[in-house]
Design goal:
There is one protein chain. The protein is an alpha/beta fold and 554 residues long. The strands form six sheets. Strands 1-7-6-5-4-2-3 form a seven-stranded mixed sheet, with helices on both faces. Strands 8-9-11-10 form a four-stranded antiparallel sheet, covered by helices on one side. A four-stranded mixed sheet has the order 12-13-15-14.
Length: 554
Amino acid sequence: MDNNIDRLVRPNILSLSPYSTARDEYSGGSLGVFLDANESPYCNGINRYPDPRQKELKERISAIKGAKVENIFLGNGSDEAIDLCFRVFCRPGIDNAISMWPSYGMYTVAAATNDIGMRKVLLEKDFSLDTEKILSAADGNSKLLFLCSPNNPTANALPKSQIREICSRFGGIVVLDEAYVDFSSEGSMMEELSSFPNLIILQTFSKAWGMAGTRTGLAFSSERIISLFDMVKYPYNLSVLTQNTVLQWLDPSLKERHVREILSERERLRSCLSSLPCIKEIYPSEANFLLIRTDDANAMYDFLISKGIIVRNRTTQPLCEGCLRITVGTPLQNDELLSALSSYGDVSSQIKVTASAPTPEDNRKFSLRRKTSETDIEIRVDLDGGAGGKVSTGLGFFDHMLSQIGRHGGFTLDITAKGDLEIDEHHTIEDVGIALGDAIRQALGSKAGIGRYGFCLPMDECDAAVLLDLGGRIDFRWEVEFKREYVGDVPTDMMEHFFKSLCCELRCNLHIKATGENDHHKAEGVFKAFARALRMAITRTPSPFEMPSSKGVI
């Protein structure tokens, strides 16, 4: 493969004069009187056009991914980058593309939309790819070759050596879709981009990063290819809301924590599913899902739907007859799946059971042990067991604060944590937040009958306000400033991190604001206010036994 990428580009694209936005022509920052873009002058946070080059977001991504800003393209999902591949390189009705098959269906849809022929090369029976077969499918008009690794829906990853060989021998652009790479032991090809000027790597924030709702896809390639994408894309393709939301949730430590749990749950699911007689085969997975084979995929799919569990029926795909694709969920969601499948085929399980309304005697307890290489944490929560409990983390002030949650929250909370305090307080505080959010969420169960919302509270000269919603949507805001680096033996910057970790695992809206002079009082006010807000939110009313919502029932 030579370095002359321009020889592959559509002639009309090479001669294209891209649209120049007002923000392209003036890049002097946010200060000034802006009368250039015919926007509304009335500030509401979204009255101005977004940065068309996404400079701040790309700089954050550059630091995380180790790629230069010039080598990054951001689009409306990976689908935009896929579409741009066809629009930049393929002449409608003349050129063609090649794809391994079965694979992600949008390659074919984008090809058809752009009037480009798609040559599908069937995988082997074990889902491996024959290099000679896919290369022999090319002719003089083959401009694109799509590889997906790990592949969807087969879940297997291609060896890097095979990808290198295809990049070296194919005369066009190789598009490598790494949407699931965070879950793969093979790892990314990002470090090898400079070796292959014809390689485009697609990634996404939809899977491991938990931001599917933002529809943000990434493409990494040579500076020339990225410049072509930027020239052809629509001017303001990522909104202000999207860019700000991604910046807010672009937390590598949170992503890595969730990936670790998903990988652990993937192997637990594999082990448990393999013991069920209704499962005939479970294919190896390098992704966040399992492809399973059963005698009758349609019947099992319909059964799971009747239980309120939605999986993907892939039985119509080549080589996937009788197969379902199951995304790895949370431990609780996976338990529900396993429980349902354990009764599959039992006639009695087809009878619809109406749960009785919960009573004060219902068990709202949960115990867990969370062990990592840095921490070993045991937590017991009894939401109806009375205020109090025992807390021991090795951090005196942290123990004092955590004790306020059980005492003022009106429930029993026992926490024992052993962590690498000889190194730093970070892991202990963060992991306790994760485990506590998880334990409370699991103890709440269906959340039937709870108050859902909570808010509070003054603390001496300080005001601490906590707004809490247990409805299931996640949003975290922190407006607390400390003057001191430590309160007791707890770093003040870790308090925000503790509550953010707790918020993500509890899956709630949590907004915390505090003002005042004394940092000790401020911190204590926040913990007590959170506890009181939680107490209001978890309290169950006599009836009706549903979670309050303007929509009726959640």
